[in-house]
Amino acid sequence: MVLVNGVEDAGVPAHDRAVAYGDGVFRTVEVRAGVARHWELHYAKLAADCACLDIPCPDAAVLRDEVLRICRIEHDCALKVIVSRGAGARGYRYNQSPDPSRIVISAPLPDYPERYCDVGVRVRLCALRLAQQPALAGVKHLNRLENVLARAEWDDSEVAEGLLLDGEGNIIGGTMTNIFISRPGALVTPKLDRCGVAGITRDRVIRAAMRRGVACHVGNITWRDVLDADEVILVNSLAGAWPVREIEGSTRTPGPVVRAVQQWLAEDDAQNG
Amino acid sequence: MVLVNGVEDAGVPAHDRAVAYGDGVFRTVEVRAGVARHWELHYAKLAADCACLDIPCPDAAVLRDEVLRICRIEHDCALKVIVSRGAGARGYRYNQSPDPSRIVISAPLPDYPERYCDVGVRVRLCALRLAQQPALAGVKHLNRLENVLARAEWDDSEVAEGLLLDGEGNIIGGTMTNIFISRPGALVTPKLDRCGVAGITRDRVIRAAMRRGVACHVGNITWRDVLDADEVILVNSLAGAWPVREIEGSTRTPGPVVRAVQQWLAEDDAQNG
Question: What ipTM does this complex have?
Answer without folding.
Answer: 0.97
